[in-house]
């Protein structure tokens, strides 16, 4: 199945998995940091929201590495588009367009609601796919296994409800 | 110098997520519908290779610059389950987990900006309501937090 991005063929799963393992280990070996993206959103919040939670040491002390890492993720997506057929703003959303077919306004509302759940949920869970699913599981941590099973199960139920029951 | 290292590592991570299907709406739905193996292969390979590497690094016990390498473990609490469920629903709705939200913004997917706005508002709401959530979810003290990741 081609990617939505310029109809590119995806790289093999084993190569992507090996690359992510390399990123995880490089971050730990070079700078002693646990891979994890979702806390980075708290670092962004700490720049504008004056709440005690965002002023704690774990946040203020990690702005220096999490914010550049987040910036790199955006840059990586941009370079991927530029080097793979060109960068162009798009609303294309694959099977959502085929099966549900909402326009830009509907997509913005849908994505904002989903984003709220991601932001609130990952921070309540103490990690996301990278922090719990990759790093936590690799470090054999029980809370990460509990969280990974929870979000995989909830995602499977939701997608099956949307695409096999509702539409 | 170190800032550049983090940017380069983030860029590599983002490029891989972009080109592997991990930041692709169809591949995420295919994973949750149990129709596409790709994402299971990616996460499985990443864990299978990172786990022994991590074990070796901890055993070696030193960073590149010779400082002691310590991996702090995250605390367990009820938020692991309930937060995980909320996140899983959000992942299904958007087809993006936190890394791919940023990757999709970079790729030029306009709706990803709405997802990013939602994520930041969600994280801000969580941080501002931490004291209220501490008791029902048995969260660690505010200074510790739910776990960084």
TrEMBL record, chain A:
One family name in Pfam for this protein: Sulf_transp
Source domain of life: Bacteria
TM helices/strands, residue ranges: 12-30, 67-87, 107-125
Location of this chain's protein in the cell: Cell inner membrane
Membrane association type: Multi-pass membrane protein
Keywords: Cell inner membrane, Cell membrane, Membrane, Transmembrane, Transmembrane helix, Transport
Annotated family: Belongs to the TsuA/YedE (TC 9.B.102) family.
Protein name from the UniProt record: YeeE/YedE thiosulfate transporter family protein
